[in-house]
Amino acid sequence: GGRRDGDNSIEMIAWNYQACTELILEPLTSDGFGFYPPDEDQIAAVEAACRARFNSVPRPAWIQTSTGGSMLRFASNIIFSNGEKDPWRTGAPQGNQLGPDVVLMEIPDAAHHEDLRFTVREDPPSVGVAKRKELAYIKRWLGLDARTTGHVDDAGDIVI
């Protein structure tokens, strides 16, 4: 669904608006060693572009505000999956900031959304492992697995 016209499709307009107002990715896309080095003027340039296109002002701290930021140590039942191919994985929460039921998972040879799509023949094995792990965590959190006190191992099995 949706109107199709390149960057003017409904989906792209919605994504660009969200990228302007909530997901300011530019500061997150470099670890200092990437193709695009960090630039002090990135946020200012994004703000100007967002004002021009959507008459909106970005909220660079919105991700931290909406997810609890450093307060994730008090959160539960959240999976942050990042693909190794995702440039913004450098901005992912760190393990020392997370509560015991907040999972940080980096998926080798994958992008952040591949674990959420239907399984296809071209998926790298790491995506299947990530899906099994996510399912095991969710089953444990919902009490659908009798072994709810265990942890999920690297293969996606609950270990007591």
Query: Order of SSEs, N→C?
Result: HHHEEHEE
Distance between the termini: 45 Å
How would you characterize the largest beta sheet?
A: 2 strands, parallel
Question: What is the strand arrangement across the widest sheet?
Answer: 1-2
Helix proportion range: 25-40%
Q: Identify low-pLDDT runs.
A: none
E-strand count: 4
Query: Helix count, per DSSP?
Result: 4
Structural class: alpha+beta
Percent strand equals 5-15%
Instruction: Return the average pLDDT rounded to an integer.
Output: 77
Evaluate the radius of gyration.
18 Å
Q: What sort of overall outline do the alpha carbons produce when their principal axes are compared?
A: globular
Short précis:
By secondary structure, the protein is of the alpha+beta class. The protein has four helices and four strands, in the order αααββαββ. It is globular, with a radius of gyration of 18 Å.
Report on this model:
The protein has 160 residues and is an alpha+beta fold. The protein has helices spanning 10-21, 42-54, 62-67, 125-142, and strands spanning 76-83, 101-107, 151-152, 158-159. A hairpin with a 5-residue loop joins strand 3 (151-152) and strand 4 (158-159). The termini are far apart.
